[in-house]
Amino acid sequence: MKQGIHTNLSTRPQDTPVC
């Protein structure tokens, strides 16, 4: 799930799932 988080960071840092 690290890749998904990385993608979200690049797309929108505000929508980053901090788990």
Please characterize this protein's 3D structure.
The chain is 53% helix and 0% strand. The protein contains one helix and no strands. The longest helix is centred in the middle third of the chain and has 10 residues, at 2-11.
Question: Summary?
Answer:
The chain is mainly α. It has one helix at residues 2-11.
Descriptors:
mainly alpha; 1 helix; 53% helix; 19 residues
Write the layout of secondary structure elements.
Blueprint: H1 2-11
User: Taking Cα atoms only, what radius of gyration do you get, to the nearest Å?
Assistant: 7 Å
Q: Structural class, from secondary structure content?
A: mainly alpha
- Let me know the average pLDDT: 62
| Biggest sheet features | none
Order of helices and strands: H
Indicate the low-confidence ranges by residue numbers.
none
Helix content: 40-55%
The proportion of residues in beta strands is: under 5%
- Helix count equals 1
The 3D shape can be described as flat
Please give the alpha-carbon distance between the first and last residues: 10 Å
Count every beta strand, where a strand is a DSSP E run of 2 or more residues: 0
